[in-house]
Automatic annotation (TrEMBL):
Source taxonomy: Eukaryota, Metazoa, Chordata, Craniata, Vertebrata
Biased composition (Basic and acidic residues): 1097-1108
Protein name in UniProt: Cohesin subunit SA
Gene name per UniProt: STAG3
Gene Ontology biological process terms, A to Z: cell division; chromosome segregation; establishment of meiotic sister chromatid cohesion; meiotic cell cycle
Complex and partners: Part of the cohesin complex which is composed of a heterodimer between a SMC1 protein (SMC1A or SMC1B) and SMC3, which are attached via their hinge domain, and RAD21 which link them at their heads, and one STAG protein. Component of the meiosis-specific cohesin complex, which also contains the SMC1 (SMC1A or SMC1B) and SMC3 heterodimer. Such complex likely contains RAD21, or the meiosis-specific related protein REC8. Interacts with CCDC79/TERB1; recruiting cohesin to telomeres to develop structural rigidity.
Sequence ranges of Basic residues compositional bias: 77-88, 95-107
Polar residues composition bias: residue spans: 1109-1133, 1165-1179, 1205-1222
Signal peptide per UniProt: none
GO cellular component: chromatin; chromosome, centromeric region; meiotic cohesin complex; nucleus
Compartment list: Chromosome; Nucleus; Chromosome, Centromere
Keyword Nucleus included in the entry's annotation: yes
Alphabetical list of InterPro entries matching this protein: ARM-like (IPR011989), ARM-type_fold (IPR016024), Cohesin_Scc3/SA (IPR039662), HEAT_SCC3-SA (IPR056396), SCD (IPR020839), STAG (IPR013721)
Main localisation: nucleus
Length: 1281
């Protein structure tokens, strides 16, 4: 690191790191009154990295308030000290105090005592002008230097949150380290908050006011006290000592003050450098004058001025070196990320403000090293600092070595897990691309390109700008600014779209161009909104575009039109904005008018050219969604409407693809708005089209019904007509064409004879379904007659019977279609349809019979809960087919679950779904979890019984397949235990609310396990006894009292088994151990809050199980409330030596002892283990920190408990919140095709922490010691926070 001082002012330093001389010790006399400088402060900074590292490590070993370092000089300077510029000893004339001034002291207050904290209060209030506040302090300092400096010191101490003060006596007789140690002992640690981190409105602006005070202080002192050795040097010494404290508040606040002080000094140094340059120019100009014009007095004056400026610059550089070496070098890798972020942010500002001295590799390396920081805020500050440097083209030459060293890291940060960090990394790389040509290689750019399709819009837009400057700008934009017409020439626009096509097609990174258009919208919006160039490219005859290029160009056209019309990104791309500004809405409305006026005449031409291609016709028909259709009327463009309707009819007649038919039906629906003046014309065209399709259907239907065999062309024609009618029936009311009866006849023949092809059955089912729904829409009005309602009910019941028959069809597509339509109709005609004042629809309510419910459940088992094949890379055709099949199965499961939750099916049928929760968690876990949550909200007791029923069904199936021998060792049984554990977690920590449910579940489980007895004379265990092992997974949800009663209940049930063995059965032992009190040490309180592991837990009283009354055994009444645990605090209120710590007992567990020759549970005894003592060696920690470490140990144990509780409660969060479905962001039952990938929060350990080393003693005691583990944080005082 290069020194900031000139070679003539270099100070010699000792080779020992602990004895480096300081430039900050300034004499105000030689008495102990002056605060000493830090031993880590050094004027000269070594030039190479190795020396810097060695020095910082040495300094870190010496900078410790606990090892006797008082931050004073151990060696005297080898050069002459400058004289302290102190005021004269004469007593100054006191000024009249200002009104409301802080200088007015209370009556009787001694001048030598530290003043009140009015300076801190004024800064905290931030109501007065900061310059006036600093001027008042300067006035008080000039009147009494000691009192004024004490006031400044106590201001910084109060800003740290410490209520202790530095008195005049301490100031005179104590060194820095002794003062800091005394303040540390007085620090109030009941709360972890201090002014910089405290919540509340009063502290919200404190940090800004605090930094402003430091800046103003240096600004007002830059011509006076800044060069006086007493105040600034000793303030720097104090801040250096506080920044090395083990108290986080001291370290954080003093580091912020020191870095802001350094920033202000950098500004002063910059001004001095400018003054020196001006002085040099004036001196050279005066010296170059002729002998008659030259003024010797002027030259002498300029020389004196230059000497004074040189001295001032040396003073400032010495202070900056002291702050950099004493604070920054150690704190830029502090354990606290906020401190590291402060250091990096200020370093970036120094480089931008004073690039001559700081923009060197010796300082840049700190930013490069910190790019690997594990905290988001620190990495973000690094990137922002570098953006300010790379944004200036004049500085890029100095950044070449840094860029070559850390370029790979910058490129890799594009994939940072924090989106805002990745965005800043891309923006920084864009600046490098602009200002440093040839630095980023093609490999670097190719690793950035895929991020243009990221789901986060800010990141995708940043990469879009990078892509624009890399690929499009050099080819499409001219470098001349004056000729603006050439910048948007048609040729450059065509070049832009050709480059965009080649990038999208050749890169093969994505299948949808809408996301690429959205990424480029912010930087290349004007080019993408050039619809004239786009349409001219598409309509050219000799355009030399391939089929893929044409399809992509049409998709780009549709995407740009949608983006301009709607103003929001495509589906799946996340943006943080809630709405558009008025200016953006105005631009959006103007763009919508422009694109409509341009595309209305051209859309029929585009459809005429590409109508034969379904992939091109479907997106072109979607353009009508984004038009301002009223322009057809206002601009008198009806002739283009006529052409559009003709092309629309041709497209519908030509194609049978669902996408094209749906787009055409929807486009016609948009035009059929009665508010438009051209509605009659469009309605007539629709009637003509439907008449054409209906007549064709009637002819083909008669042929199908009369003959038993049709050739392929006839089948294809009938199926195509039915598909077209089905697509239009979805968007338009075709009731007056009476399509229900002919379609029903066709379906009845298919069910009775099986002679109808499946291509015909599928659209026919959909047609009948839409016919019923449109009829329901008509009768939903209050004027519907009873006859109409009964007629609709008869049609619906008849169609349900047809769908029920189709469930057993040989074709899986017909089966799935029938299941979907049947589940939708059952849901629509469920009892929910009369809710909301529609009781007149009660005759339409339909409840399915038991046979239909059974068939629906059987279909679910056969078509949903099946093991799919293994997915490959995800890019092959087979993988895409499997993904589509998975989406279809999720859709089927969601439909079945909705029938359960809305009461259409019996809730007990949910056991068929819940028992697959664990096995199919990856595929359907979100749907089943949501169903379980909703079912618990409907009826908690019934839901608990369903969970038990699911386990019973699985156990019975396994028992029938494998037999009772060795059942609990099978892999399938282990999976059942995992399922039971997941069910238990779903109850959550609210033990008091779930108490009766869990006890009921245990009792029914015990009865089921003993429901079947072994054959007479057999010594084998009951076949269902292994079910107790599944039941043991629910035991942690029981209260201690309930465990005792359940043990008695189990004993009573076992006494009825005549073949009781001489030793207990294995499942009984496992279950009893789960109910033993030794398992209850981690029980939660009734409110669900975790307890501390160090808390004493009372064991149960010793009593025989026979003493429990028979009434308790019979009823298990839940009338006893568990005792409230004793509340203990982790805060130590009074200080005491470590040797005087009270022994803390750990709760002894108890276990059940089953002995031979006695009754199975009658001889149970509760055993308490011996107390375990908490011991800490006296020599393991230095005095003054014992209570803090003890407190930290308790807090760490509580945090571990919280982590365990959080990990175990992932299944129940939100279960007991009575929230409406609208409060959730997504309804999993309404949208089954969701992305089930979750985000994983990676918790990384801090770089420096206390490592607890412990060992168990021979008498059950635990010896505890603490050692400081520092891996990447140099310097004492960074471990305790």
């Amino acid at each position: 690191m290069p020194t900031l001082r000139s070679s003539s002012s270099q100070l010699h330093s000792s080779s020992s790191p602990s004895s480096v001389s300081s430039p900050l010790r300034r004499a105000l006399g030689t008495g102990p009154r002056s605060l000493s400088a830090s031993s880590s402060s050094s004027v000269a900074v070594p030039c190479d990295d190795r020396d810097s590292d060695q020095t910082s490590e040495g300094d870190s070993e010496s900078l410790s308030a606990g090892e006797g370092s008082d931050f004073e000089d151990n060696l005297r300077r080898n050069v002459r000290k400058r004289a302290a510029k102190r005021p004269l000893k004469t007593t100054p004339v006191a000024k009249r105090p200002k009104k409301g001034s802080r200088m007015v002291r209370a009556h009787g207050q001694k001048e030598s005592e530290p003043p009140a904290s009015d300076l801190f209060d004024a800064v905290k209030a931030a109501k007065s002008d900061m310059q006036s506040l600093v001027d008042e302090w300067l006035d008080s300092y000039k009147q009494d230097q000691d009192a004024g400096f004490l006031e400044l010191i106590n201001f910084f101490i109060r800003s740290c949150g410490c209520k202790g003060t530095v008195t005049a006596e301490m100031f005179k007789k104590m060194s820095n380290s002794e003062i800091i140690q005394h303040l540390t002992e007085q620090f109030n640690e009941d709360s972890g908050d201090y002014p910089l981190t405290a919540p509340g409105p009063s502290w919200k602006k404190f940090q800004g006011s605090f930094c402003e005070f430091v800046r103003t202080l240096v600004y007002r002192c830059q011509y006076s006290l800044l060069y006086d050795g007493f105040p600034m040097d000793n303030l720097i010494s104090l801040l250096t000592g506080l920044s090395d404290s083990q108290v986080r508040a001291f370290r954080h606040t003093s580091t912020l003050a020191a870095m802001k002080l350094m920033t202000s000094l950098v500004r002063v140094a910059l001004q001095l450098s400018l003054h020196k340059d001006n002085n040099q120019r004036q001196y050279e100009a005066e010296r170059n004058k002729g002998p008659g014009q030259r003024s010797p007095e002027r030259l002498e004056s300029l020389l004196e001025k230059r000497k004074e400026l040189q001295e001032h610059q040396e003073e400032i550089e010495g202070m900056m070196n002291a702050l950099f070496r004493g604070v920054f070098v150690h704190r830029y890798r502090d354990v606290l990320p906020e401190i590291r972020a402060i250091c990096i942010e200020e370093l970036g500002s120094w480089m931008q403000s004073y690039s001559t001295s700081f923009l060197t590799d010796s300082y840049l390396k700190y930013i490069g090293w910190t790019l690997h920081d594990k905290h988001r805020e620190v990495r973000l500050k690094c990137l922002k600092a570098l953006k300010g440097l790379y944004g200036n083209r004049d500085w890029t030459a100095r950044l070449e070595l840094f860029t070559s060293r850390f370029k790979d890291r910058l490129v890799s940060m594009v994939m940072d897990r924090e989106y805002d960090v990745a965005v800043e990394a891309v923006r920084l790389l864009t600046l490098i691309l602009k200002n440093m040509e040839g630095v980023l290689t093609e490999a670097d750019c190719e690793s950035i390109y895929p991020v243009v399709y990221a789901s986060n819009r800010a990141l995708a837009s940043a990469v879009g700008e990078f892509l624009y400057w890399k690929l499009f700008y050099p080819e499409c934009e001219t470098r001349t600014v004056g000729e603006r017409e050439r910048r948007r020439s048609p040729r450059s626009q065509r070049t832009f779209f050709h480059l965009l096509l080649s990038f999208f097609v050749e890169s093969e990174l994505h299948y949808h161009a809408a996301y690429l258009v959205d990424s480029l919208w912010d930087c290349a919006g004007p080019q993408l909104k050039d619809w004239e160039s786009l349409t001219s490219l598409l309509l050219e005859k000799d355009q030399n575009l391939g089929d893929v290029q044409e399809s992509t160009l049409i998709e780009i056209l549709v995407s740009s039109v949608r983006q301009a019309s709607e103003g929001h990104p495509p589906v799946g791309r996340v943006t943080g904005r809630k709405g558009l500004t008025p200016k953006e809405r105005k631009i959006q409305a103007d763009d919508k008018v422009k694109l409509t006026e341009h595309l209305i005449p051209l859309l029929p031409q585009l459809l005429a050219k590409f109508s034969a291609d379904a992939e091109k016709a479907a997106p072109l028909l979607q353009l009508l969604n984004y038009f301002d259709l009223s322009i057809y009327c206002t601009r008198r463009l009806e002739k283009h409407l006529e052409l559009l309707l003709q092309q629309l009819q041709e497209v519908v007649v030509k194609h049978t693809e669902p996408a094209v038919l749906e787009a055409g039906a929807h486009a016609l629906y948009l035009l059929c708005n009665p508010e438009f003046t051209f509605f009659s014309r469009v309605d007539f065209a629709r009637s003509q089209l439907v008449d054409l399709l209906t007549d064709r259907f009637q002819q083909e239907l008669e042929e199908q019904l009369q003959s038993s065999f049709l050739d392929e062309d006839e089948v294809y024609g009938l199926a195509a007509t039915l598909k077209r009618l089905s697509a239009f029936y979805n968007a338009h009311d075709l009731t007056r064409w009476e399509l229900y009866e002919p379609c029903y006849r066709l379906l009845r023949k298919a069910v009775d004879t099986g002679e109808v092809p499946h291509q015909v059955i599928l659209p026919a089912l959909t047609l009948v379904y839409f016919s019923i729904l449109w009829t329901l829409t008509h009768v939903s009005g209050s004027g519907a007659s009873q006859k109409q309602l009964l007629s609709l009910k008869g049609r619906m019941v008849t169609f349900c019977e047809l769908c029920q028959n189709c469930l057993s069809d040989v074709d899986p597509e017909i089966q799935e279609q029938a299941f979907v339509l049947l589940s939708d109709l059952l849901l629509i005609f469920s009892p929910q349809m009369i809710v909301g004042g529609r009781e007149f629809l009660k005759p339409l309510v339909f409840i399915p019979e038991a046979t239909l419910q059974s068939e629906l459940a059987s279909f679910l088992m056969d078509h949903v809960f099946i093991q799919p094949g293994e997915l490959g890379s995800g890019h092959s055709q087979e993988d895409h087919l499997q993904i589509e099949q998975l989406h279809q199965r999720r859709r089927l499961l969601a439909g079945f679950c909705k029938l359960l939750l809305y009461g259409v099916l019996e809730m007990d049928a949910a056991s068929d779904v819940f028992k697959h929760y664990n096995k199919f968690y990856n595929d359907y876990g979100d749907i089943i979890k949501e169903t379980l949550t909703r079912a618990r909200q409907i009826d908690r007791s019934h839901c608990s019984r369903i969970l038990l029923l699911s386990l019973k069904q699985l156990y019975t199936e396994l028992l029938q397949e494998q037999g009772p021998q060795g059942l609990n060792e099978l892999p399938a049984f282990i999976e059942m235990r995992d399922l039971a554990r997941r069910f238990a977690l779903s109850f959550g920590p609210q033990q008091l609310q779930n108490r009766d449910l869990v006890v009921m579940l245990h009792k029914e489980g015990i009865r089921f396990s003993l429901s079947e007895l072994p054959p007479a004379g057999s010594s084998s265990q009951p076949p269902n006894l292994a079910f107790l092992e599944l039941l043991s997974e629910f035991s942690p949800r029981l209260f201690h009292q309930d465990k005792q009663l359940l043990l008695s209940y189990l004993e009573k049930c076992l006494q009825r088994v005549s073949q009781a063995p001489g030793r207990p059965w294995g499942p009984v032992t496992t279950y009893c151990q789960s109910l033993s009190p030794v398992e209850s040490t981690a029980e939660a309180s009734p409110q669900g809050y975790p307890r501390s592991k160090k808390r004493r837990i009372e064991g149960p009283p010793r009593r025989h199980r026979e003493d429990i009354s028979a009434s308790q055994e019979e009823s298990l009444q839940l009338n006893s409330i568990p005792p409230t645990p004793t509340l203990t605090s982790t805060a130590v209120k009074s200080r005491q030596p470590l040797g005087g710590l009270e022994e803390m007992e750990e709760g002894g567990g108890s276990e059940l002892a089953f002995t031979q020759g006695q009754s199975l549970l009658g001889a149970q005894r509760l055993r308490s283990s011996s107390p375990q003592h908490f011991q800490t060696p006296l020599n393991s920690l230095r005095p003054g920190l014992g209570n803090r470490l003890t407190r930290l140990s308790l807090m760490e144990e509580d945090e571990k408990e919280l982590e365990i509780q959080n990990d175990s409660s992932e299944e129940w969060q939100g279960t007991d919140k009575q929230s409406s479905p609208s409060e959730h962001g997504l309804d999993l039952l309404d949208s089954a095709e969701l992305n089930t990938e979750g985000s994983l929060l990676l918790l990384q350990p801090p770089c420096c922490e206390l490592t607890w080393l412990g060992s168990w003693g021979s008498q059950g005691s635990f010896s505890l010691a603490a050692s400081t583990s520092s891996t990447s944080c140099v310097g004492k005082g960074t471990g305790l926070s």
